[in-house]
Design a protein that fits this description.
The complex is a heterodimer. Chain A is mainly α. Chain A has two domains: 69 residues, no CATH class; 115 residues. Chain A is 70% helix and 1% strand. Chain B is an alpha+beta fold. Chain B has two domains: 34 residues; 198 residues, Sulfite Oxidase, Chain A, domain 2, CATH 3.90.420.10. Chain B is built from six helices and eleven strands. In chain B, strands 3-2-11-6-7 form a five-stranded mixed β-sheet. In chain B, strands 4, 5, 8, 9 and 10 form a five-stranded antiparallel β-sheet that branches. The longest helix of chain B is centred in the N-terminal third of the chain and has 21 residues. Chain B is globular, with a radius of gyration of 31 Å. Chain B starts with a strand and ends in a 19-residue tail after the last strand. The chains are: A mainly alpha, B alpha+beta. Chains A and B meet through strand 1, helix 2, helix 3, helix 8 and helix 9 of A and strand 1, helix 1, helix 2 and helix 3 of B. Strand 1 of chain A pairs antiparallel with strand 1 of chain B, so a sheet runs across the interface.
């Protein structure tokens, strides 16, 4: 006859599987904070000399005027750059990028996009990213690198002339910087929307499980 | 390892376990709420409007000073601003100021004299004719405005470092400070290493014509390694100094180094 026994360890709630390690969570929220500051102050700077026929509403800009926007932008950039660099180094060094974001295959992405659009994409195991997630997360890392490089090119077009050359010329670096911002904003909308649709993913990004 | 027996006669063991698990607190859910609450509490406890408070302003000023130091550190005095062929010149080159062209200083070239002050051996004032005698060079470079737009122009004049040498300036001093004829007294400090940069120029001509009123007649300081607002127009005096004397835009919050 089998006796049903439970150990003390089992009585205590066994800790759930860690989905997002602490370093990812900390850097994610620092990045979110820095990104918002950069976007809102960037809109302020954009308004001083708009590239296109529109300006951003004043209520959604940071700094009050161009000078204030620049101060915020060039303060938050340190947070964004240092945190971003630490994230890239840790992501590669721990193998997280390779493990979580690869491989990305065209057929996998197509399959998961189709599944998502028909609401058949499962989110049972949050530790495994689907192909749409892999593509978006890897893509936004590339955009993040591009927006920093184009920003540096505009900040130091003489000292970092080779960076300007990478983009063609100074005005082109400005456009690249703008479109990267637009891509990040689009990502942000989808990202936040999906996090709210799958709240346990938001929970995992806050407490890890 | 202690083992406890949970055998109760007449009770289905599996159902008991199932039920008891349900009564256990959901640790993960609790932590989630606690985490969220503490995040909110943090912003409440600090009690400051993060965006508009004076402490934020003070912090931003300090970071801007730090940025001055970083920029001075990475400034390579030998790195040249890219030059362009004449065909790349922006036409028309924009007039840009915090006032309309009608309000731009209208300087009489015959009366005008460049005053030289501060840590220099020869404090004599210079007439425009005297300055025109100095050797001049032409360079086609990109003017980059703090607002983000840029335009390529052709400027002709005397390298500032040659002039500083000529007047026996103490080039170990920290700044060359320019005062201008603009209304509200425009002025701007230029750090000495940028002042000694080979492309920094006392400009007397634009597109090979005497500098028009719109671009700063009689003299502009063209610094292709600086943002436009650190390229003063309508200059009336320069002072070699160790004191940071501030500037029209710098005092309002533009980063003082603002170099490229």
């Amino acid at each position: 006859m089998a006796s049903l026994t439970v150990t003390d360890e089992q009585i205590r709630a066994t800790p759930a599987k860690v989905i997002q390690p602490a370093w990812v969570r900390v850097m994610h929220w620092i990045n979110a904070f820095a990104m918002i500051l950069m976007i809102l102050s960037g809109w302020q700077i954009y308004n001083a000399s708009p590239l296109f026929g529109f300006s951003f509403p004043r209520e959604y800009t940071l700094g009050g005027w161009l000078g204030g926007g620049l101060l915020w932008h060039f303060a938050a950039m340190w947070l964004l750059m240092i945190n971003g660099l630490a994230y890239l180094v840790t992501g590669f060094a721990t193998g997280r990028f390779a493990k979580k974001l690869l491989p990305i295959t065209a057929s996998g992405v197509l399959h998961d996009v189709r599944a998502a659009l028909t609401f058949k994409l499962g989110h049972d195991d949050l530790t495994v990213y689907n192909y749409v997630q892999r593509l978006l997360y890897a893509g936004i890392i590339v955009v993040g690198v591009l927006i920093v490089l184009s920003g540096l090119a505009m900040w130091k077009p003489v000292q970092l002339y080779y960076l300007v050359m990478l983009f063609g010329d100074y005005p082109t670096a400005r456009y690249v910087h703008f479109f990267c911002m637009a891509a990040i904003c689009a990502f942000l909308v989808i990202h936040v929307l999906l996090a709210l649709l799958v709240p346990k993913s938001l929970r995992a990004m806050i407490i890890g499980r | 390892m202690a083992k406890r027996s949970f055998l109760i006669p007449g009770v289905d063991k599996r159902l008991l376990i199932k039920d008891s698990i349900k009564t256990m607190p959901d640790v993960t859910r609790r932590r989630f709420i606690a985490g969220g609450a503490s995040l909110g509490a943090l912003t409440l406890l600090t009690g400051c409007d993060v965006v508009d408070s004076s402490s934020a302003e003070e912090m931003l000023k300090q970071v801007s000073k730090f940025n001055d130091a970083v920029q001075a550190f990475i400034f390579n005095p030998d790195a040249l601003a890219p030059t362009f062929p004449e065909s790349a010149i922006t036409k028309p080159f924009p007039f840009n100021a915090y006032y309309d062209l009608d309000d731009a200083p209208d300087v009489d070239g015959k009366d005008w004299k460049l005053e030289v002050r501060g840590l220099v051996d020869n404090k004599k004032s210079w007439t425009l004719d005297e300055l025109y005698q100095l050797p001049q060079v032409t360079q086609v470079t990109r003017h980059i405005c703090v607002e983000g737009w840029s335009a390529i122009g052709s400027w002709t004049g005397t390298p500032l470092r040659d002039f500083l040498k000529l007047i026996g300036a103490d080039t170990r001093a920290k700044y060359v400070w320019f005062q201008c004829a603009d209304k509200d007294g425009y002025n701007s400090p230029l750090d000495m290493r940028s002042a000694l940069h080979p492309q920094t120029q006392m400009t007397f001509k634009y597109a090979n014509e005497i500098l028009p009123r719109a671009y700063g007649f009689p003299m502009k300081i063209r610094v292709p390694t600086k943002l436009g607002f650190k390229n003063p127009k309508y200059v009336v005096s320069m002072e070699v100094t160790n004191d940071y004397k501030g500037g029209y835009w710098e005092d309002q919050g533009y980063n003082s180094f603002s170099g490229s």
